[in-house]
Amino acid sequence: MADKPLKDKVAVVTGAGRGVGRGIALALASLGARVVVADLGGNVDGTGASSGPASEVAEEIRKRGGEAVANFDDVAVMANAEKLIKQAVDKWGRLDALVTCAGILRDRMIFNMTEEEWDAVIRVHLKGTFACVKFASIVMRQQRSGSIVTITSTSGLYGNPGQANYASAKSGIAGLTKVAARDLGRYGVRVNAVSPVAATRMTITPEVMKAREMRTQMGIKREGFGDWGEPPLEKLDPEDVAPIVTYLVSDLATNVNGQIFYSAGGTISLLSQPRPIKTIFKDGVWTMDEMEGIMPYTLAAGLVNPAPPPQPAAQQPAPAKR
């Protein structure tokens, strides 16, 4: 294999100023890609903005001998997303890869979540991904080539307490990915998703750690995290997510389209697509009596409540009368 398998490819990475996005941008550049490092530079909750993170990563790439420019716009604004893609094309004449890592958190239990907390997270994750994918797809469709990698999450694929907004956005991104793969595949454009697990400022916070402790105490199982034997979250480097992304945007993955991959440390998994696993059928419509008789032994057999209600405290014996 060539030392620079991505030589002269042009990539846009959103959310590239920190964490997983930063690791991906650096890895793409190290393999020869020219990179637009896009990051608003805001806080984890989406407030504020700074040119510092994107500028620092772009400068780090240049110091290592690569080519990079920075972008500081809010990618959830359609005009900004269009301008971001245009920046890459104007600078280097084409666009070969888009990786959408930009995101924020506003965690809250569903019964406490505000409309603003819902809207803010959906806007950045889901609309921001759509906006960038839309304008990248126009260029890639004309080129008849390109690779898009979206970032989903186990929170959206399996569910995670306190993240109704984030999980909904990430689940939406998974759906968007599957549809875009089918819309664009005929034009030689591939669209896949990666669900990363890594220690970043979004995952290692007092709130997140407290929530994890509470889940353990309540007996809530977070499916899809730790199921493959990877190290604890605190030991998972965000830069370890980059290899699967760099592979997906390379010419080695020309037949990989519409798939979702899990990445945590040295663990990379191809996740299954939703498919029927059990079926019951009859001529006509089921009655409630029939459902009562068959469901416990077929479709509902062996199902476990992922968040069981607490068991009532054991009754203390009444004190003996004297």
List key phrases describing it.
322 residues, alpha/beta, Rossmann fold
General description of the model:
It is a single chain. The protein has 322 residues and is an alpha/beta fold. The chain has one domain: Rossmann fold. The protein is built from 9 helices and 8 strands. An 8-stranded mixed β-sheet has the order 3-2-1-4-5-6-7-8, sandwiched between helices. The longest helix has 29 residues, at 115-143. The radius of gyration is 23 Å and the shape is globular. The chain starts with 9 loop residues before the first strand and ends in a 28-residue tail after the last helix. The model has no long low-confidence stretch (mean pLDDT 90).
Flag low-confidence runs: none
CATH architecture descriptor: 3-Layer(aba) Sandwich
Radius of gyration from the alpha-carbon trace, in angstroms: 23 Å
The fold-level CATH name is Rossmann fold
In short:
With 322 residues, the protein is α/β, with parallel strands linked by helices. The protein has helices at 19-30, 52-63, 78-92, 115-143, 154-158, 164-184, 206-218, 242-249, 288-294; strands at 10-14, 34-38, 67-71, 97-100, 146-151, 189-196, 260-264, 267-270.
